[in-house]
Every structure is written in structure tokens, then in C-alpha cells.
């Protein structure tokens, strides 16, 4: 593993290794602290979009591993915001830093950065993929519900970066995956192509009731994360019936787990009651961003 750009880059063995290292680092952190695996290393934390969890969990994670994490607002502070070519920014940062985390819009831009940086690049979210989030989701499911293989995971909502990544991550982990979204909001075509190789272990549906049936884990995310505000009204119409409610979850396995990558829009993709019933799982999922990203950094930069 040279970079973490999207879930498709991982083999099942690499995915399991990241989760194993994350469990170990979490246990060490709870017992007093993790070893300084990034001592002397620096990580550029480049954000072209807003973030709470990704930014702060990387900042804290690099610190806990003994390295230096430098946040930079790529939308307003770097010369890239005034037109410096991306490949030049990549070649400069790659000479100062040992790793670059970038939150941006186009996956192709992230891949160009990785082509030119000469150091590992980690996807902090693009319009196509959110691998750090899905690794934290899988860590949380395994931590709470045991082995992932054979569990049914159902994603309900927009076929966006979260759907793209959770479909691939769940299938790589041996889960049965159902994705439920309105027909106009399907996941990326290449993700559906990947998923179809798993035969009956993958289903793409439009009916939330059918999708959540017997699910061990139900996952959702905001309906307009990557969309313009002007689209909100149309999306609220198109996603009517896709909210995770107590009634919808009656069809899932009793005691099913509910995850949400946050921030949540209560009353839109998830009801307040479902959110609060599952808040401990959801905030453990947020906490696990820290541990799983430390694992990714330790594997990429310290050869774990
Ligand atoms: N889930 C997630 O990526 O959160 P932030 O947008 O706050 O980083």
C-alpha cells in the first residue's frame, strides 16, 4: 500500500491489517499512549473544504504518534488557491512533508497530487470516495459485533462518496451489502461494476423497507453533502421515504446497529429518535476515525 486514495486500492488482507493495527493502537492509547511511530515525520493536512472530524482526528493522531501535523486551508491560504498548478504544489509539499492528507472535490485532482508528490497521499474525502470514514465504520462494526464476514450491511441514502466507499469496503470485508437509493442517485458506475462481481452478496435497491430487511448494520449520511444548497429542496423531495426512522428499522435485525458519518441532519436522513438511540455507536464511529487513521499513517510511514 503506497497511498490511500480509495477503497478499491486495498486488498482484503490490507483492509484487515489496517483494522488489526487500529485495534492495537486504540488499546495502547487507552492504556496510556501509542509509541512515537512518526517521530521526526511531518504530515501536511490540506483542506479545500470544511471539516471537523477529519481535520481534528488527523491533527491529534499525528501528535499522538510523535509527528508534526500541519493544517493548511487550501481554499484560501495556499498559492494553489491563486492558480499555482496542482502538480507544482505536490512537488513542493512532497519535498517538505512525509505524507499529504487532502480533502478536495475531484478524485482526479487527488490522484494527480499522488502522481507528483513522491510521498504517500491519503484521501480526506473527495466527491468520489471517503475511505478513512469507511475504515472507521468497519472498525466500529467489528469492535461491537465481531467478525465482519457474513453480516448484512445496508446503506440508505445518496449514492455518493460514502455509498461508493462503503459498498467496496463492506464487500472486501466479506459482508453482504445492500445499497438503497433513489434511482437518480445511484453510486458510481465503476463501483457498481466492482460490486456486481460479488453476485448475490450485493444488491442495489430503491425500496428502503426491502433494503433494511434483516440488516445487522444500517448506515446513512447527509443527502446533499456534495451538492449545491440550491439543490436542497429538490433532494428533500427525491429522498422522501429514505429517512432512517424507528418504523423503518423494525424490519432490520432486532438490535441492529446504526452508523452515521456525521455531521447529521436530524429530521432529514435520520430521525432524532434513531440518532439518539444509536448515539453511542455513532460517536464511537467518530472516535474510531482517530485510531484507524493512526493505523493508516503507521502502515504508510512506519512500515507497520
Ligand atoms: N465524517 C466526516 O468526514 O466529518 P468532517 O466533515 O467533519 O471531517
TrEMBL record:
InterPro entries documented for this protein: Asp/Orn_carbamoyltranf_P-bd, Asp/Orn_carbamoylTrfase, Asp/Orn_carbamoylTrfase_sf, Asp_carbamoyltransf_Asp/Orn-bd, Orn/put_carbamltrans, OTCase_ArgI
GO cellular component: cytoplasm
Annotated positions binding carbamoyl phosphate: 51-54, 79, 103, 130-133, 261-262, 289
Residues in Aspartate/ornithine carbamoyltransferase carbamoyl-P binding domain copies: 3-143
Pathway given in the UniProt record: Amino-acid biosynthesis; L-arginine biosynthesis; L-arginine from L-ornithine and carbamoyl phosphate: step 1/3
Catalysed reaction equations from the record: carbamoyl phosphate + L-ornithine = L-citrulline + phosphate + H(+)
GO biological process: citrulline biosynthetic process; L-arginine biosynthetic process via ornithine
Top EC class for this record: transferase
Residues in Aspartate/ornithine carbamoyltransferase Asp/Orn-binding domain copies: 150-299
Top-rank taxon: Bacteria
Binding site for L-ornithine: 161
Entry's EC annotation: 2.1.3.3
Pfam families: OTCace, OTCace_N
Keyword Amino-acid biosynthesis found: no
Molecular functions (GO terms): amino acid binding; ornithine carbamoyltransferase activity
Keywords from the UniProt entry: Cytoplasm, Transferase
Subcellular location: Cytoplasm
PANTHER family associated with the record: ORNITHINE CARBAMOYLTRANSFERASE, MITOCHONDRIAL, ORNITHINE TRANSCARBAMYLASE, MITOCHONDRIAL
NCBIfam families noted in UniProt: orni_carb_tr, PRK00779.1
Family per record: Belongs to the aspartate/ornithine carbamoyltransferase superfamily. OTCase family.
UniProt-recorded name of the protein: Ornithine carbamoyltransferase
Species in which this protein is naturally found: Candidatus Faecalibacterium faecipullorum
Lineage: Bacteria, Bacillati, Bacillota, Clostridia, Eubacteriales
Amino acid at each position: 500500500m503506497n497511498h490511500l486514495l480509495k477503497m478499491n486500492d486495498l486488498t482484503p488482507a490490507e483492509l484487515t491489517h489496517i483494522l488489526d493495527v487500529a485495534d492495537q493502537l486504540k488499546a495502547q492509547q487507552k492504556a496510556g499512549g501509542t509509541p512515537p511511530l512518526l517521530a521526526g515525520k511531518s504530515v501536511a493536512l490540506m483542506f479545500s473544504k470544511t471539516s471537523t472530524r477529519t481535520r481534528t482526528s488527523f491533527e491529534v493522531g499525528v501528535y499522538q504518534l510523535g509527528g508534526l501535523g500541519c493544517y493548511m486551508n487550501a481554499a484560501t491560504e495556499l498559492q494553489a488557491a491563486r492558480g499555482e498548478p496542482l502538480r507544482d504544489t505536490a512537488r513542493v509539499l512532497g519535498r517538505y512533508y512525509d505524507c499529504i492528507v487532502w480533502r478536495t472535490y475531484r478524485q482526479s485532482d487527488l490522484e494527480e497530487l499522488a502522481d507528483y508528490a513522491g510521498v504517500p497521499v491519503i484521501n480526506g474525502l473527495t466527491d468520489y470516495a471517503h475511505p478513512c470514514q469507511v475504515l472507521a465504520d468497519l472498525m466500529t462494526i467489528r469492535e461491537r459485533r465481531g467478525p465482519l464476514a457474513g453480516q448484512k450491511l445496508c446503506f440508505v441514502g445518496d449514492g455518493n462518496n460514502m455509498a461508493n466507499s462503503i459498498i467496496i469496503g463492506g464487500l472486501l470485508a466479506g459482508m453482504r451489502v445492500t445499497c438503497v437509493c433513489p434511482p437518480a442517485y445511484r453510486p458510481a458506475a465503476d463501483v457498481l461494476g466492482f460490486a456486481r462481481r460479488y453476485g448475490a452478496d450485493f444488491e442495489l435497491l430503491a425500496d428502503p423497507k426491502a433494503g433494511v430487511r434483516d440488516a445487522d448494520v444500517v448506515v446513512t449520511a447527509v443527502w446533499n453533502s456534495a451538492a449545491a444548497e440550491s439543490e436542497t429542496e429538490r433532494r428533500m423531495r427525491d429522498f422522501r421515504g429514505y429517512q432512517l426512522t424507528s418504523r423503518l428499522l423494525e424490519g432490520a435485525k432486532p438490535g441492529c446497529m446504526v452508523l452515521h458519518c456525521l455531521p447529521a441532519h436530524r429530521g432529514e436522513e435520520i430521525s432524532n429518535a434513531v440518532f439518539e438511540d444509536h448515539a453511542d455507536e455513532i460517536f464511537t464511529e467518530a472516535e474510531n476515525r482517530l485510531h484507524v487513521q493512526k493505523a493508516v499513517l503507521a502502515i504508510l510511514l512506519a512500515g507497520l
